[in-house]
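Hi all, long-time lurker, first post. I run a small reading group and we've been trying to get comfortable going from sequence to structure in the token notation. Rather than ask abstract questions, I figured I'd post a concrete chain and ask someone more experienced to write out its structure so we can walk through it together at our next meeting. Sequence below, copied exactly:
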Amino acid sequence: MKLKLRKKQGKTKSPKSKLDNDTKKRNLSIEEIEKMEMKKKMKAMSVSKKGRRSLLSSIVVFFVLGLLFAISYLLDGKINIIVGFISLGLIALSIYGLYYGIQGLKEKNKKVRNAKWGIGLNFLWIVVFLILFVRGL
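-- Answer (accepted) --
Happy to help. Here is the structure in token form:
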């Protein structure tokens, strides 16, 4: 017994034809049509994962550095060697975040706003740590 499959007949509208019908009704210019298409593409774009990781690392550095400042204030500047090692770890985390921010800029068809913020903040934390180590806490 053989079953025959029939193709569905009739017109199927593609998304482009729907856009064409909408533009015909509204009498839009070419520039407005291109702006509409760009908005649809931007909605489809996702955020860079490496850029998100970079921004997250800079936020972690911010909170842990604030905690270290609070500990230093409570102990009147007599901090342990453990705090020094934690700050070295934070420098490594800032460098890690800077690296991933740069990698996030290289991702194709992704929003890179988080990567840009991550690069800027991680660079700022590296400068802050250099000043802290040269001047002292």
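A couple of things your group might point at:
The first strand starts at residue 46 and ends at 47.
The beta strands are 46-47, 110-111.
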